[in-house]
Amino acid sequence: MMPMTPPVAPAGGVRLVVSDIDGTLITPERRLTPAARQAADDVRRAGIRLSLVSSRAPRGMMQFVRELRIDTPIAGLNGGLICDPDGTIRERLSLDPETARTAVEFLIAHGVEPWLYIDHDWLVRRDDTPQVRHERDVVQTTPVRVDDFAGHYENVGKIMGVSSDPASLPGVERKLAELLDGKASVHQSSPIYLDITHPRANKGYAAKELAKLLDIDIRDTVCIGDMNNDIPMLKEAGVSIAMGNAPDNVKAHARFVTRSNTQDGWAFAMENFVLPRA
């Protein structure tokens, strides 16, 4: 069993929960459990707002917005796109076109396949790979195939690098971050995915913007996640929670560690770390 912080209620009052989706809110099979649904209802009844932030494009988040009856703005593309629950864009942070081109060329040279996200559109060079088929099934979105990304570097909210060699991805992340030298935010969002966004577009920025839109102090916000790209929001949160399935370096940035997403860790966190603070 994964290490877990005992359910001690933190002091203070919570007004907003900002939650990651994959690896956090949902199971490895990409499902919401009955316990998670019940916990979300309990949070709502306690007067706490619930929002979602993800490396997914907002279109790929809408299933869970509907299922959990989310009525707050949400943030996709690691904060690069902030939308109302109906998908109306509130704010976008786009990569500089030259930075986007440099990142794409670097990824291709290192054997990592790039995907581009522009507002609600997902652009790929090939739409017949196992990774594209898997992502299409997961996010329920059809990609737009283009022969070449030249001419598509304007208004890029996120570049996703898709690797067939997970062991090499941390090194690619480090080298690309050094190459871009502050011109982009570079974070691994899964064992095979690397996210490149505007330098201010990270989940920490997203959590602060979501709280601001709701007129809530970030110190009254709980953030919960499981991967490297969640660390920026864990650092900003009044209360930070890491999933039991998170790597140790992510847990090191959290005040609390809940159970894994195979053990209803999200629901456990809401019931033990959030609701006692309502």
Automatic annotation (TrEMBL):
It holds the Pfam family Hydrolase_3. SUPFAM superfamilies: HAD-like. Gene3D superfamilies: 3.30.1240.10, HAD superfamily/HAD-like. The keyword rRNA processing does not apply. InterPro entries: Cof, HAD-like_sf, HAD-SF_hydro_IIB, HAD_sf. CDD domains: HAD_Pase. GO terms for cellular component: cytosol. Keywords: Hydrolase. One of its GO terms (molecular function) is phosphatase activity. NCBIfam families: Cof-subfamily (TIGR00099), HAD-SF-IIB (TIGR01484). This is Hydrolase. It comes from Komagataeibacter swingsii. The lineage of its organism: Bacteria, Pseudomonadati, Pseudomonadota, Alphaproteobacteria, Acetobacterales.
